[in-house]
Amino acid sequence: MASSSHNPVILFKRVLSLTESSPLILCLDSMAQTSHRLIQEFIHQSKSKGNECPVVYISFETVNVPSYCTQFIDAAQMDFVHVVRQIISYLPAATATQAKKHMVIIDSLNYIPTDLITRFLSEIASPHCTIIATYHKDITDDDHAVIPGGNNNYPDKLTLLQFMATTILDIEVALAGNLDTEEVGELLNEFRIPRGLNNEIYQLRFVNKRKSGRSLEYDFKINSKNHEYELSLNTRQEEVDGGNELETPDMLQGLTTFNLGTSNKQKLAKDQVALPFLEAQSFGQGGAIVYEYEKDDDYDEEDPYEDPF
Protein backbone atom coordinates (compact mmCIF):
# COMPACT_ATOMS: atom_id res chain seq x y z
CA MET A 1 0.00 0.00 0.00
CA ALA A 2 1.29 3.40 -0.88
CA SER A 3 2.63 5.27 2.07
CA SER A 4 1.31 8.73 2.67
CA SER A 5 0.99 11.31 5.39
CA HIS A 6 -2.74 11.39 4.58
CA ASN A 7 -5.22 9.34 6.52
CA PRO A 8 -6.65 7.10 3.77
CA VAL A 9 -10.19 7.09 5.17
CA ILE A 10 -10.23 10.88 5.57
CA LEU A 11 -8.86 11.34 2.06
CA PHE A 12 -11.51 9.00 0.68
CA LYS A 13 -14.30 10.88 2.49
CA ARG A 14 -12.95 14.19 1.19
CA VAL A 15 -13.17 12.87 -2.36
CA LEU A 16 -16.72 11.63 -1.80
CA SER A 17 -17.82 14.96 -0.33
CA LEU A 18 -16.09 16.89 -3.18
CA THR A 19 -13.97 18.86 -0.70
CA GLU A 20 -10.86 17.29 -2.24
CA SER A 21 -10.12 18.74 -5.66
CA SER A 22 -10.59 16.02 -8.27
CA PRO A 23 -12.02 17.21 -11.61
CA LEU A 24 -12.63 13.74 -13.09
CA ILE A 25 -13.62 10.78 -10.92
CA LEU A 26 -13.79 7.52 -12.86
CA CYS A 27 -15.93 4.70 -11.44
CA LEU A 28 -15.17 1.27 -12.89
CA ASP A 29 -18.01 -1.16 -12.28
CA SER A 30 -19.39 -4.42 -13.62
CA MET A 31 -22.63 -6.33 -13.79
CA ALA A 32 -21.71 -8.08 -10.53
CA GLN A 33 -21.36 -4.79 -8.63
CA THR A 34 -22.59 -1.61 -10.28
CA SER A 35 -21.66 1.93 -9.30
CA HIS A 36 -25.20 2.76 -8.13
CA ARG A 37 -24.42 2.42 -4.41
CA LEU A 38 -21.14 4.30 -4.78
CA ILE A 39 -22.90 7.24 -6.45
CA GLN A 40 -25.27 7.27 -3.47
CA GLU A 41 -22.22 7.66 -1.22
CA PHE A 42 -21.21 10.83 -3.10
CA ILE A 43 -24.66 12.29 -2.49
CA HIS A 44 -24.69 11.24 1.18
CA GLN A 45 -21.22 12.57 1.98
CA SER A 46 -21.75 15.89 0.19
CA LYS A 47 -24.96 16.44 2.17
CA SER A 48 -23.47 15.39 5.51
CA LYS A 49 -20.49 17.73 5.04
CA GLY A 50 -22.74 20.64 4.15
CA ASN A 51 -21.32 20.67 0.64
CA GLU A 52 -24.55 19.88 -1.19
CA CYS A 53 -24.41 21.12 -4.76
CA PRO A 54 -26.55 21.02 -7.92
CA VAL A 55 -26.41 17.69 -9.75
CA VAL A 56 -26.53 17.44 -13.54
CA TYR A 57 -27.29 13.83 -14.48
CA ILE A 58 -26.42 12.65 -18.02
CA SER A 59 -28.30 9.46 -18.80
CA PHE A 60 -27.44 6.99 -21.53
CA GLU A 61 -29.18 4.03 -19.90
CA THR A 62 -30.99 5.30 -16.78
CA VAL A 63 -34.77 5.37 -17.21
CA ASN A 64 -36.01 6.73 -13.89
CA VAL A 65 -34.93 10.21 -12.86
CA PRO A 66 -32.90 10.05 -9.60
CA SER A 67 -34.43 12.00 -6.74
CA TYR A 68 -31.21 13.88 -6.00
CA CYS A 69 -30.56 15.31 -9.46
CA THR A 70 -31.24 18.95 -10.30
CA GLN A 71 -31.12 18.58 -14.08
CA PHE A 72 -31.69 15.34 -15.99
CA ILE A 73 -30.45 14.97 -19.57
CA ASP A 74 -31.63 11.99 -21.60
CA ALA A 75 -28.63 11.65 -23.93
CA ALA A 76 -29.55 8.28 -25.41
CA GLN A 77 -31.21 9.79 -28.49
CA MET A 78 -29.08 12.94 -28.77
CA ASP A 79 -26.02 13.54 -30.91
CA PHE A 80 -22.66 14.56 -29.51
CA VAL A 81 -22.95 18.29 -30.20
CA HIS A 82 -26.38 18.68 -28.61
CA VAL A 83 -25.40 16.70 -25.51
CA VAL A 84 -22.35 18.87 -24.88
CA ARG A 85 -24.30 22.06 -25.56
CA GLN A 86 -27.06 21.13 -23.11
CA ILE A 87 -24.60 20.13 -20.37
CA ILE A 88 -22.71 23.41 -20.68
CA SER A 89 -25.98 25.36 -20.47
CA TYR A 90 -26.54 24.02 -16.94
CA LEU A 91 -23.01 24.78 -15.70
CA PRO A 92 -21.52 28.11 -14.58
CA ALA A 93 -19.21 29.85 -16.99
CA ALA A 94 -15.58 28.83 -16.65
CA THR A 95 -14.60 32.49 -16.19
CA ALA A 96 -17.04 33.05 -13.31
CA THR A 97 -15.25 34.11 -10.13
CA GLN A 98 -18.02 33.25 -7.68
CA ALA A 99 -19.98 30.19 -8.71
CA LYS A 100 -21.37 27.23 -6.82
CA LYS A 101 -19.72 23.90 -7.46
CA HIS A 102 -21.73 21.49 -9.62
CA MET A 103 -21.67 17.70 -9.76
CA VAL A 104 -21.92 16.16 -13.23
CA ILE A 105 -22.83 12.46 -13.13
CA ILE A 106 -22.53 10.34 -16.28
CA ASP A 107 -24.13 6.92 -15.92
CA SER A 108 -22.05 5.28 -18.68
CA LEU A 109 -19.12 6.41 -20.82
CA ASN A 110 -19.33 3.23 -22.91
CA TYR A 111 -21.79 4.90 -25.30
CA ILE A 112 -19.38 7.68 -26.29
CA PRO A 113 -17.09 6.74 -29.23
CA THR A 114 -13.41 6.37 -28.46
CA ASP A 115 -12.35 9.12 -30.86
CA LEU A 116 -14.73 11.59 -29.15
CA ILE A 117 -14.18 10.71 -25.49
CA THR A 118 -11.34 13.17 -24.83
CA ARG A 119 -13.14 15.99 -26.63
CA PHE A 120 -16.38 15.26 -24.76
CA LEU A 121 -14.79 15.41 -21.31
CA SER A 122 -12.58 18.41 -22.08
CA GLU A 123 -15.51 20.49 -23.36
CA ILE A 124 -17.67 19.97 -20.28
CA ALA A 125 -14.78 20.23 -17.81
CA SER A 126 -14.84 23.38 -15.71
CA PRO A 127 -13.23 24.73 -12.53
CA HIS A 128 -16.73 24.83 -11.05
CA CYS A 129 -17.74 21.21 -11.61
CA THR A 130 -16.64 17.70 -10.72
CA ILE A 131 -17.33 14.96 -13.26
CA ILE A 132 -18.26 11.57 -11.80
CA ALA A 133 -18.39 9.11 -14.69
CA THR A 134 -19.00 5.36 -14.78
CA TYR A 135 -17.38 2.92 -17.17
CA HIS A 136 -18.61 -0.69 -17.40
CA LYS A 137 -15.58 -2.99 -17.39
CA ASP A 138 -17.42 -6.04 -18.71
CA ILE A 139 -18.57 -4.33 -21.92
CA THR A 140 -16.12 -4.74 -24.78
CA ASP A 141 -14.88 -1.56 -26.40
CA ASP A 142 -15.75 -2.56 -29.97
CA ASP A 143 -15.14 0.86 -31.50
CA HIS A 144 -11.53 1.27 -30.37
CA ALA A 145 -10.37 0.35 -33.89
CA VAL A 146 -12.23 3.36 -35.32
CA ILE A 147 -9.64 5.95 -34.42
CA PRO A 148 -8.60 9.35 -35.77
CA GLY A 149 -6.11 9.27 -38.64
CA GLY A 150 -6.18 5.49 -38.83
CA ASN A 151 -3.44 5.14 -36.20
CA ASN A 152 -3.45 1.52 -35.06
CA ASN A 153 -1.47 2.41 -31.93
CA TYR A 154 -4.19 4.69 -30.58
CA PRO A 155 -5.11 3.58 -27.02
CA ASP A 156 -8.48 2.10 -26.20
CA LYS A 157 -11.15 3.98 -24.29
CA LEU A 158 -10.40 2.56 -20.85
CA THR A 159 -6.70 3.43 -21.15
CA LEU A 160 -7.58 7.00 -22.11
CA LEU A 161 -10.00 7.35 -19.22
CA GLN A 162 -7.54 5.99 -16.67
CA PHE A 163 -4.93 8.44 -17.94
CA MET A 164 -7.26 11.46 -17.74
CA ALA A 165 -8.95 10.62 -14.44
CA THR A 166 -7.63 12.26 -11.29
CA THR A 167 -9.37 9.67 -9.11
CA ILE A 168 -10.16 6.07 -10.03
CA LEU A 169 -12.63 3.97 -8.04
CA ASP A 170 -12.45 0.34 -9.13
CA ILE A 171 -15.47 -1.51 -7.72
CA GLU A 172 -15.41 -5.25 -7.05
CA VAL A 173 -18.13 -7.47 -5.65
CA ALA A 174 -17.65 -8.97 -2.20
CA LEU A 175 -18.76 -12.55 -2.74
CA ALA A 176 -20.52 -14.41 0.03
CA GLY A 177 -21.27 -18.08 0.47
CA ASN A 178 -19.84 -20.69 -1.88
CA LEU A 179 -19.51 -18.44 -4.93
CA ASP A 180 -16.08 -17.64 -6.33
CA THR A 181 -14.95 -15.08 -8.89
CA GLU A 182 -14.46 -17.58 -11.72
CA GLU A 183 -17.89 -19.14 -11.24
CA VAL A 184 -19.60 -15.74 -11.14
CA GLY A 185 -17.80 -14.69 -14.32
CA GLU A 186 -18.99 -17.79 -16.17
CA LEU A 187 -22.58 -17.26 -15.06
CA LEU A 188 -22.59 -13.60 -16.05
CA ASN A 189 -21.18 -14.45 -19.48
CA GLU A 190 -24.29 -16.57 -19.96
CA PHE A 191 -26.47 -13.70 -18.65
CA ARG A 192 -27.36 -15.78 -15.60
CA ILE A 193 -27.20 -13.52 -12.55
CA PRO A 194 -26.67 -15.47 -9.32
CA ARG A 195 -27.93 -14.33 -5.95
CA GLY A 196 -25.64 -12.32 -3.72
CA LEU A 197 -24.48 -9.67 -6.21
CA ASN A 198 -24.77 -5.87 -5.97
CA ASN A 199 -24.65 -5.99 -2.21
CA GLU A 200 -24.50 -3.10 0.22
CA ILE A 201 -21.02 -4.32 1.19
CA TYR A 202 -18.43 -4.41 -1.58
CA GLN A 203 -14.72 -4.01 -2.28
CA LEU A 204 -13.17 -0.91 -3.81
CA ARG A 205 -9.69 0.08 -4.96
CA PHE A 206 -9.14 3.80 -4.50
CA VAL A 207 -6.50 5.50 -6.67
CA ASN A 208 -5.90 9.20 -6.10
CA LYS A 209 -3.44 11.10 -8.28
CA ARG A 210 -1.64 13.93 -6.51
CA LYS A 211 -0.44 17.14 -8.14
CA SER A 212 3.14 15.95 -7.74
CA GLY A 213 2.38 13.09 -10.14
CA ARG A 214 2.45 10.42 -7.43
CA SER A 215 -0.53 8.08 -7.10
CA LEU A 216 -1.93 6.88 -3.79
CA GLU A 217 -3.58 3.45 -3.87
CA TYR A 218 -5.73 1.97 -1.12
CA ASP A 219 -8.14 -0.94 -0.84
CA PHE A 220 -11.41 -0.39 1.01
CA LYS A 221 -14.34 -2.44 2.17
CA ILE A 222 -17.42 -0.25 1.74
CA ASN A 223 -20.59 -0.64 3.77
CA SER A 224 -23.19 1.53 2.04
CA LYS A 225 -25.86 0.75 4.61
CA ASN A 226 -23.93 2.24 7.53
CA HIS A 227 -21.70 4.48 5.38
CA GLU A 228 -18.58 2.89 6.84
CA TYR A 229 -15.27 2.60 5.01
CA GLU A 230 -12.81 0.02 6.28
CA LEU A 231 -9.23 0.12 5.04
CA SER A 232 -7.97 -3.31 4.03
CA LEU A 233 -4.46 -4.56 3.37
CA ASN A 234 -3.07 -4.30 -0.12
CA THR A 235 -2.51 -7.99 -0.76
CA ARG A 236 -1.11 -7.31 -4.22
CA GLN A 237 1.81 -5.37 -2.76
CA GLU A 238 2.37 -8.07 -0.14
CA GLU A 239 2.57 -10.68 -2.89
CA VAL A 240 5.13 -8.59 -4.79
CA ASP A 241 7.24 -8.09 -1.68
CA GLY A 242 6.99 -11.78 -0.83
CA GLY A 243 8.21 -12.75 -4.29
CA ASN A 244 11.51 -10.92 -3.71
CA GLU A 245 12.41 -12.94 -0.62
CA LEU A 246 15.96 -14.31 -0.66
CA GLU A 247 16.45 -18.05 -0.92
CA THR A 248 17.75 -19.84 2.15
CA PRO A 249 19.14 -23.38 2.55
CA ASP A 250 15.95 -24.37 4.36
CA MET A 251 13.99 -23.78 1.15
CA LEU A 252 16.04 -26.47 -0.60
CA GLN A 253 15.36 -29.17 1.96
CA GLY A 254 13.20 -32.03 0.74
CA LEU A 255 13.16 -30.93 -2.91
CA THR A 256 15.48 -33.68 -4.18
CA THR A 257 17.44 -36.67 -2.91
CA PHE A 258 20.67 -34.69 -3.43
CA ASN A 259 22.22 -32.48 -0.80
CA LEU A 260 21.87 -28.98 -2.27
CA GLY A 261 23.03 -27.19 0.85
CA THR A 262 26.58 -26.11 1.75
CA SER A 263 28.42 -26.64 5.01
CA ASN A 264 30.32 -23.90 6.84
CA LYS A 265 33.63 -25.40 5.67
CA GLN A 266 32.47 -25.31 2.05
CA LYS A 267 31.30 -21.71 2.38
CA LEU A 268 34.69 -20.70 3.83
CA ALA A 269 36.58 -22.40 1.00
CA LYS A 270 34.32 -20.73 -1.54
CA ASP A 271 34.93 -17.29 -0.07
CA GLN A 272 38.71 -17.78 -0.20
CA VAL A 273 38.82 -18.47 -3.95
CA ALA A 274 40.64 -15.64 -5.72
CA LEU A 275 38.52 -14.52 -8.63
CA PRO A 276 40.54 -13.23 -11.62
CA PHE A 277 38.17 -10.39 -12.48
CA LEU A 278 38.67 -8.91 -9.01
CA GLU A 279 42.44 -8.72 -9.58
CA ALA A 280 41.91 -7.10 -12.98
CA GLN A 281 39.88 -4.35 -11.35
CA SER A 282 42.89 -3.34 -9.22
CA PHE A 283 44.77 -1.91 -12.22
CA GLY A 284 44.73 1.85 -12.42
CA GLN A 285 43.93 2.28 -16.10
CA GLY A 286 42.33 0.08 -18.69
CA GLY A 287 42.23 -3.67 -18.54
CA ALA A 288 44.88 -6.36 -18.38
CA ILE A 289 45.29 -10.06 -18.99
CA VAL A 290 46.18 -11.86 -15.79
CA TYR A 291 47.85 -15.21 -16.42
CA GLU A 292 50.26 -17.24 -14.31
CA TYR A 293 52.46 -19.74 -16.11
CA GLU A 294 52.56 -23.29 -14.89
CA LYS A 295 55.41 -25.77 -15.21
CA ASP A 296 53.84 -27.64 -18.12
CA ASP A 297 53.16 -24.54 -20.20
CA ASP A 298 55.12 -24.27 -23.47
CA TYR A 299 55.95 -20.73 -24.51
CA ASP A 300 57.76 -19.70 -27.72
CA GLU A 301 58.89 -16.22 -28.62
CA GLU A 302 58.10 -16.90 -32.26
CA ASP A 303 54.65 -17.71 -33.48
CA PRO A 304 54.82 -20.79 -35.74
CA TYR A 305 51.58 -19.75 -37.43
CA GLU A 306 52.72 -16.23 -38.22
CA ASP A 307 52.33 -15.20 -41.86
CA PRO A 308 55.89 -14.78 -43.28
CA PHE A 309 54.74 -12.37 -46.00
UniProtKB/TrEMBL annotation:
User: What does the record give as its pathway?
Assistant: tRNA modification; 5-methoxycarbonylmethyl-2-thiouridine-tRNA biosynthesis
This protein is called Elongator complex protein 5
- Where found, per UniProt? Cytoplasm; Nucleus
**Stored Pfam families:** Elong_Iki1 (PF10483)
Q: PANTHER family, per this entry? A: ELONGATOR COMPLEX PROTEIN 5
**Gene Ontology CC annotations of this record:** cytosol; elongator holoenzyme complex; nucleus
The entry assigns this protein to a family as follows: Belongs to the ELP5 family.
Q: Which GO terms describe its molecular function?
A: tRNA binding
Q: Which BP terms does GO give this entry?
A: tRNA wobble uridine modification
What keywords tag this UniProt record?
Cytoplasm, Nucleus, tRNA processing
Domain of life here? Eukaryota
